[in-house]
Amino acid sequence: MTIIVNGKPREVKAATLDAVLAELGYNGAHVATAHRGEFVPAAARAACRLEEGDRVEILSPIGGG
Amino acid sequence: MLVYGTELRSRLLLGTAQYPSPAVLAEAVRASGAEVVTVSLRREGVAGGGQGFWQLVRDLGVRVLPNTAGCHTVKEAVTTARMAREVFSTPWIKLEVIGEDDTLQPDVFGLVEAARILSAEGFQVFPYTTDDLVVAGRLLDAGCQVLMPWGAPIGSGRGINNPYALRSLRAHFPNVPLVVDAGIGLPSHAAQAMELGYDAVLLNTAVARAGDPVRMARAMARAVEAGRLAFEADPMEARDMAAPSSPVIGMPVFGA
């Protein structure tokens, strides 16, 4: 199915957020996730089921003021 | 300075954006003596961010204060704060809710609402606010134990636009930690903020965009220290007319 990851359409096989992270190569990365605009804690990713067209945000640390 | 139960010896908080290189950032943080640096969250894959940046910050051994920079709504700011708490493993959040893009002026109504929500969730909120006295009171009511009024718009380097308002805030809230956040361009601005009795200064662009960021970080550290010492020393009052500093009594007469 196609989901929107960080604003870009991505074709994925996985159906849960943790599996999608692994599929997209974020295994072990220090990131925070959101699904449909809501924060999904790391511990809740396995239970977070994705549907066609869902929006996922994957954020990581960067310099800030 | 005691903030949310944490004692900070350095009164300079430094941002980590816009440096010419990661090596210069690291050296500038060391030169500044800052114990707290601000950080942010962006989409994974953005240049300059990610796992390398995070490793660099961790190696510096400083405390991080994540921000919600760029957020324009309460929902964006609250969601970003929740994500930041997990990624950076800290309840501290520099709360920004931007209301206007030319000035990056805080939306103080959204700010107070977001501060209330986050404080109730156990966050320790550092609100980036204006110098408005009434808003400051509302932020304290919302659970904030520190206030961070702007000196001037973010990145403008204009210094302290309204010393009267900042002096007024200081006088009204003598026991609340107050940090001038944004607008500092020169060490003299930082010193002025400290002379007004502010507890600390938070700046980024003034150091990162200097020709020699490391040297400027050192200059800012000294200015903050000098300004604080001056405040503690209880400066003299300014006056309009001259007053001789050398003794008047005992002047010789050299007339013919």
What do you see in this structure?
Chain B: Pfam families: ThiG. The complex is a heterodimer of chains A (65) and B (256). Chain A is mostly beta strands. Chain A has a single domain (2-59), classed as Beta-grasp domain (Ubiquitin-like (UB roll)). Chain A has one helix at residues 17-23, and strands at residues 2-5, 8-11, 32-35, 38-40, 55-63. The longest helix of chain A is centred in the N-terminal third of the chain and has 7 residues, at 17-23. Chain A is globular. Chain B is an alpha/beta fold. Chain B has one domain (2-232): Aldolase class I (TIM Barrel). Chain B is built from nine helices and twelve strands. Chain B has helices spanning 22-32, 51-60, 74-88, 108-120, 133-141, 163-172, 187-195, 205-208, 213-232; strands at 2-3, 6-7, 12-15, 36-43, 63-66, 92-95, 98-100, 105-106, 124-129, 148-149, 179-181, 200-203. In chain B, the strands form four sheets. A five-stranded parallel sheet of chain B has the order 5-4-3-12-11. In chain B, strand 7 and strand 8 (105-106) form a beta hairpin. The longest helix of chain B has 20 residues, at 213-232. In chain B, 44% of the residues are buried. Classes of the chains: A mainly beta (65), B alpha/beta (256). The A-B interface holds A 6-7, 26, 29-34, 37-39, 41-42, 57-65 and B 15-19, 25, 38-46, 48-51, 53-54, 57, 66-67, 69, 75, 79, 82-84, 86-88, 154-155, 182, 204-205.
